[in-house]
Amino acid sequence: MPIPLTLGVPHRPDPNALVHELLLxxxxxxxxxxxxxxxxxxxxxxxxxxxxxxxxGSDDLGRIVVHLDVDPDELRSGRTGNYEAVRFDVDAxxxxxxxALALRLPSPLVVFPVFDAIDVAETAEAVVFxxxxxxxxxxxxxxxxxxxxxxxSHADVGLVARADTGDQVLAILAATVASLRGDDIAGALAxxxxxxxxxxxxxAAEAVREVLLGIEIADAARxxxxxxxxxxxxxxxxxx
Length: 240
Fold this sequence. Notes:
Helix 3 (72-77) links the parallel strand 3 and strand 4 (82-92). The protein is 37% helix and 20% strand. It is of the alpha/beta class and 240 residues long. The longest helix has 16 residues, at 166-181. The relative contact order is 0.14.
């Protein structure tokens, strides 16, 4: 009997999929942008639009995430360095959420709603319905994080998080896994099962990263060191 053949190159999952470009260094000024850490675990640095406007037009900045703290029209008309904006992100208090969702930009937009006194799940659904990516903070309440993850895990727009420490990075990773498995998200945030994260097969890790697009963090190098410490990243110095 004939045997069906699949033409093309078979997919080979990345064994480091869980941490590949996971950490997005947040850069407070031009110097921080120029010295942002580079490597497999680091994604594009995050830089404020106002910082871009203050930089020389000759600078080649590469791939970056632009945090909109000025009007997009001002950024378009200002003289900035050469860069590829892979994403934009914006903070959106409730009174400005509709305006944020209506922005027309050349790259995908991440909207970080300010969740005080608003319905979290309803707001996350509004962001997803507008084909935007919701953003959350690791310092938000477990209930709010769980509500956003419950919405995003059934959508195709992904999620971006913000964290302050390596332990918060672990918590967000564990919570994302829990949301995909239908497990207790609040419990995963409070006590991340690092052994379970290490045990994820590459296909499962890739599924997690299809939801969790990246984690913005100021001290990305220290966060990476924490991931090395718990065994999610191989210690390169140990191999030399």
